[in-house]
Amino acid sequence: MKILNLAMKLIMLLFWAGIIYALIGPDFQEVGLMPLILGSVVLVMHILQMLMLKRVSQILHPTTKDYLAVLVFGSFAMHTHRARLKEIMEENKQTNAQKKQQQEK
């Protein structure tokens, strides 16, 4: 799974490099608006994922580096945050179940 995630991050880097080259490269007129449209759609999706991370920031305490990774890599950078959030939620479930058992006694 880690190798697949790493490969997908590499693909995202290539995607962003292609978008930037299409925008500032010498053949901008030939490329047209397609890279701008694709880059905008992906950027909006990654910003939405950053907002999702912001919603759980009190629980996960993400750093600026985490936000930048989500902005560049999107869901491939969110994998670790989802796993951490799942662990925290499981711990909270267990704690709440223990408290409930103690109150019933």
UniProtKB/TrEMBL annotation:
Transmembrane regions: 32-53
Superkingdom as given in the UniProt entry: Bacteria
Coiled coil: 78-105
Keywords: Coiled coil, Membrane, Transmembrane, Transmembrane helix
Name of protein: DUF1145 domain-containing protein
Organism per entry: Oceanisphaera ostreae
